[in-house]
Amino acid sequence: MKQQRYIAIIDIGKTNAKVALVDMDCLKELRVCTTPNHVVAGPPYAHYDTHALWQFICASLKTFHAEFGVDAISVSAHGATLAMVDEHGGLAGPIMDYEFSGFDDTWQAYQAHRPPFEESGSPLLPGGLNSAAQLYWIQQNCPKIWQRTKRIVTYPQYWSGHLSGVFVNEVTSLGSHSDLWNPHKSDFSSIVERLGFADKMAPVKPANTLLGNVRPEMAEACGLPNDVAVYCGIHDSNASLYPYLLLQRASFNVVSTGTWVISMAIGSTSPTLDPARDTLVNVNAFGDRVPSARFMGGREFSLMVPEGAQSPDSQILNQVLASKDFIRPQVFENAGPYMGQTSNWQEIVEGKSSTEIYALASLYLALVSAECLTMIGLQKEIIVEGPFAKNDIYLEMLGIATGKDILVNSSSDTGTTIGAALLVGRSLKENEFQCKMAHTPHLPAMKTAFEAYRDNWKRDV
Question: Which of 265, 238, 113 is nearest to 174 (CA)?
């Protein structure tokens, strides 16, 4: 096999899709391209615009190869998404958006079929967030698509399969509240046999499996040589976790931030998880169970904070901390530790400047994140990955609310790309992937004000 220095990462997030090029000699991103991840309303149901995504992927790979060369491709993608592949390797039907709102006709029947939390580690979630509910809806409502389906695969593995021609499943996506996986037995859950999915489920392979080289027709479309290797791929929040597992850190939390804020606990001693508060059992790249909690923090931030808003100066932040203005959860009320509760955010932000709203939203998101971490087991240190790692107010309040050291790693602009790149098999040394203490420009001068705000928010909630 040729040396694999330049690794292209296809990273499909719920809000945006990215293609990044990582130099494995220094573990740095050389280039990153992004595009919105659009949803098509239908027919036959709301679905992702995979044609547009593929055109974007091809254009990005052509650019990267022309400038640096591409030696291998790895994939990360969001969860709660499955692809149904026909006998020719094409899509049997569009890839359903998990926020599709048309599940009413099958919702009650599906609940009677799903495995209990004790088996699957998956809480009952609205819409298509339990991805087996999507399969059941298509099975009942789109019989032609169901009949055409030869293989059902998890979303990162659709893209790696599209490139390589080898379609598989992988545990980090199966183990992400899908209802399809039993993390205690490392096997499919009982629903797979019960609803007749078993014959269509592709085989399960590890995230770091080399599937083969890019297919000739795909190589031509992407401007690549035929010897570019394609790796299986991984669920995006688990990609953020993967480097720390390779470093064998004993006890820590990772908060992976993006559209979703996913909190994970490594070394937690069997916490009691409450499915009614959106806690769950995720599965890491080695197949191990990971106590987790989540809420749609990135979506909430985008909803509340005007585009282009900047972090406030110390004077404005002091005024916000001294105020009685608290955003109560849950802004996106269908997910999170306070799901079902209605937020007062619109009332609170009315008449406020964009910098004040930035501060209020950041404080709120940190306090909800702290609650997530408390539910799954606070560890000695908390590592924040992704966009919120650059939000000083979020990091400061998270440290105050948890009483733990907050660490960040700034080596990746996209949070998941280094983890996905490491699937090619490169070893990792501590000094190559160092975390540093979070930047806290407002502490210790405002420590008392942060603590008072935390206490008042908790009383208010």
Answer: 238
How many CA atoms does the CB half-sphere of 72 hold within 13 Å? 28
Convert the pLDDT of each residue in 228-282 to its tens digit: 999 999 999 999 999 999 987 789 999 999 899 999 999 877 789 999 999 999 9
pLDDT 10s digits, 298-327: 999 999 999 999 999 999 999 999 998 999
Q: What is the pLDDT of residue 169?
A: 98
Burial class (CB in 10 A: 0-12, 13-18, 19+), 147: exposed
Please state whether beta strands 229-231 and 210-213 pair in parallel, antiparallel, or not at all (unpaired).
antiparallel
Q: What is the dihedral of CA 216, 217, 219, 222, to 10 degrees?
A: 180
Instruction: Please check whether the domain covering 6-232 is classified as CATH 3.50.50.60.
Output: no
The token pair at 355 is: 């910098």
HSE of 138, CA atoms in CB hemisphere, 13 A: 31
CA-nearest of 287, 248, 207 to 427 is 248
Every domain range in the chain assigned CATH 3.30.420.40:
6-232, 237-460
d(CA 192, CA 148): 18
Fold designation for 237-460: Nucleotidyltransferase; domain 5 (3.30.420)
129-173 pLDDT tens trace:
999 999 999 999 999 999 999 999 999 999 999 999 999 999 999
